[in-house]
Here is the input.
Amino acid sequence: MREAEPTVVKNSPRADTAFAFITLFLGYALVRAVLFCEPGVGVTIYAVIFVALAALYMRLHGVRESAASVVPPVIMIVFSAAFIVSGIRWVRYLVVLFEVLVAVYWFLAAFGCRAEERLGDFFPFDMIKAFLLQPFASFFAQPKAVDGALKRTKAGRRVFYIVLGLALATVPAAMITVMLMASDYAFENLMRVLFDSFLTSAWLNAVYFAFGIPVAMYIFGMMTSASTRKCKGFLSPEQCKKVLGVLGFVPAAAIYTALTVILAIYALFFATQSSYFFSVFSSLLPEGYSFSDYARRGFFELCTVTTINAILVILSELLIKREAAGEAPSKLLGLRALNILMGLSTLLLIAVAGAKLYLYIKNYGLTPARVNAAWFMLLLAIAAVLLIIRQLVPKFNFWRATTVAFVALFAALAFFNTDVLIAKYNIARYYDGSLPSVDVYIFRQLSDAALPELAELLERDEASGGALLEDEPRRWAMQYLSDRIYYAGRFRENSKRFITDRINYLLGYNASRGAALKLLDSGKYLDKTRYDG
Here is the structure.
């Protein structure tokens, strides 16, 4: 597929006018599905609709098919499934942010507004332009387009007058209704029924619509700026280079000295502490330490130092004086050599921290914090390797490779229900004897998607005559399972009161809710959790 910059071959004023109204719906729907519902199947449906409408908008404006116009929407469609299959709420919110970033970059790339024709060294600048500059450069274009459309045509003016009339009638209509309700019991009952079944839903939808207006303005601003290439000249390659030149004010000698000092500290650390910290690789326990204390000691510090390392390498690339690096290739080679050593130090620190984490997991099992730490260390390790490659091969596309790696790792986080995997892993290791006990209290940190694993554990404990769990953990697990199932049932019942609540309930369906409802509908766990042991 072509990677060349696409070309806008025509303007489409009618399409712009139509999408000024369509984005009102998109803003309303996004706010309702994300802010007023738990992100679930509603966001999946929204992503599909958005991609379809965005593709139509691009087609109407003559965007040619290319990797820039095809790859981002495919990513959006794929990741939209995470709102259904993932049981972890905070992960689903991260996917919402990820989808937004992909969408704004899609419009930037498809309309040829990137600093480069493909994802490259100026990718951070492109993301700033896509997420901030383009949408806000035309932020007020949407209300202007709507206002112009309403005033320009006879039908539009009629709609405007109808809305104005409804607004003017609001106060007197409310006063008259209240007085009539006070004068007649039958009319009062009728109004209460209407209010409960219709007016409440209308009020809630009005709130959703009001919150959705700024979102609609953001979306339409993004579309308009992209289709008109309003921000094409901002953060151009020349301007990006100029920004880097302005940032590069620190003399090369200062950068080299700072990095050398840090590397010397690392050398001393690795030399003097090798017998202590590196014993983790052979799972040896130093005298006077428990596995918990030893694995925890220095772990978060090592993770912090690793993150600082990555920041230092980025700052060294940004802040080094450009003239010095450009005029003296040997100095540039010096920076590359130091960055390679920093990358290797980072990998070594990650290896030590990872080995400590492995030791912790081996002796105590998994927790969400340990899984997330492992994910983050893997991402840093890949970035460090790619950084080293970049220093050895200057033409290597670091940002493209890093982006691909991040998307792949983020997909693993989004689609693998890590809460379920944690529960399965810990329970399985308890069954095979490699863990002395199973920590049922860990389920407080897990989503409802892991409840079936807790229910199965309790069933096996009951079948064994209570041999698997002690009395107190068993009672707690039964009560917790009962409470979570009861809450899921009450939530479902409460959603039946108003039509808006019913729709919101359906829009928020996800793996966690499905797991809890399946246990509830089985009809046996609520009674079983009353068991005292």
